[in-house]
Amino acid sequence: MNIPVHAATTQVAPAALESRTRDRILQVISERGPITAATLAADLGLTAPAVRRHLENLEEAGLIAEREAAHGVRGRGRPARSFVLSDAGHQGLESDYDHLATEALRFLARESGEDAVRRFAESRVAELEGRYAADLAAAGTSTAARVDALVGALTRDGFAASARPVGEPDSASPFTGIQLCQGHCPVQHAAREFPQFCDAETDAFSRLLGVHVQRLATLAHGDHVCTTFVPTSKPLSTPAATPAPATSTPARSTPARSKEGSSTR
């Protein structure tokens, strides 16, 4: 028996809506995790029970994991549960093109050596750096303003970037600065095997911001977010108005270890 069109639509629509809602929740978690159900509900305009139901399903599917929020004031009682994407969740945002790209990089490394992969990574990042340079130049010489401009540029390119201050304001301490976070990385799959991409990106951030930045955590090494520390106490140079040429070989940054022991990608 044929199902009337309007009846079929009625049956399919709830499933499609559920799928779109789930994808929206995953995207927000990737951008803002660790994040609570209450915050998700407020941001997405959904009811708290609906969000909790999706979170339970996502957790059962292994796409998200509970993680204590890095900062914030706790009230009395048990703290609210916060969530981040799991490794499987990040992989779910990847496409078959990621696997193809990794295979191509392996071939390049076999045929021409690891240095060819490094040059390719630097060339790719140089293209991003060239587009970002104008935005950061317009932001002026303030490190904080330039970080804000970089966050905006990275977010437009799908990196789900954000920033927050760390340390004591107006302090000369080397631990005072800004944490630049990237909740999603379009080349995460390849960067697990080829850290040259992370090295090139870190060097580009240093040139764009005019300070020596340090990579503290990476998605490629299993952290839930890429974290880069940007010091605000001692700028090393005047930020460059234009990026270094793609053919140059930038100084490699010294790997920094996170509190959990992870190093640069």
From TrEMBL:
It comes from Pedococcus badiiscoriae. Pfam families: HTH_20. It comes from the Bacteria. This is Putative ArsR family transcriptional regulator. Residues 230-265 are annotated as: Disordered. InterPro entries: ArsR-like_HTH, Carb_Metab_HTH_regulators, HTH_ArsR_DNA-bd_dom, WH-like_DNA-bd_sf, WH_DNA-bd_sf. Residues 11-94 form the HTH arsR-type domain. SUPFAM superfamilies: Winged helix' DNA-binding domain (SSF46785). One of its GO terms (molecular function) is DNA-binding transcription factor activity. Residues 231-256 have a biased composition (Low complexity).
